[in-house]
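Sequence, please.
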C-alpha cells in the first residue's frame, strides 16, 4: 500500500487520483503518521463500500472492548454479577 503526505495530496491531487485508480487504496500521512485511508470506489458500489468500512470499524471497536475486559479481568464475571451491574446502572439512570 502506498503512503502519501497531506502536502502531496494538496499539491499534486491530479497525480494522487491517478495513483488511487491504480493502487485502489492509499494511506494519507501527516508528519509521517497515518491519518486517513483513501479507497477507490465506483458510484454503484458506494453504499457497499461505506458499509464495509463501518463494519470493520465496529469489529475493531468490539475487539478493543474485549481486550480491555480481559486486561481488567472482567471477562470472567459470572452472569449473576453481570446482571447485578446492569441492574445497578439502570436504577441509577431512573433517578
Amino acid at each position: 500500500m502506498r503512503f502519501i503526505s497531506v502536502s502531496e495530496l494538496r499539491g499534486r491531487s491530479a497525480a494522487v487520483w491517478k495513483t488511487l485508480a491504480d493502487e485502489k487504496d492509499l494511506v494519507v500521512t501527516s508528519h509521517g503518521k497515518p491519518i486517513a485511508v483513501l479507497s477507490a470506489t465506483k458510484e454503484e458500489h458506494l453504499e457497499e463500500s461505506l458499509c464495509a468500512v463501518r463494519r470493520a470499524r465496529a469489529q475493531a471497536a468490539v475487539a478493543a472492548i474485549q481486550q480491555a475486559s480481559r486486561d481488567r479481568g472482567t471477562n470472567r464475571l459470572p452472569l449473576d454479577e453481570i446482571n447485578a451491574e446492569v441492574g445497578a446502572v439502570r436504577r441509577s439512570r431512573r433517578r
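The two ends are 52 Å apart (CA to CA).
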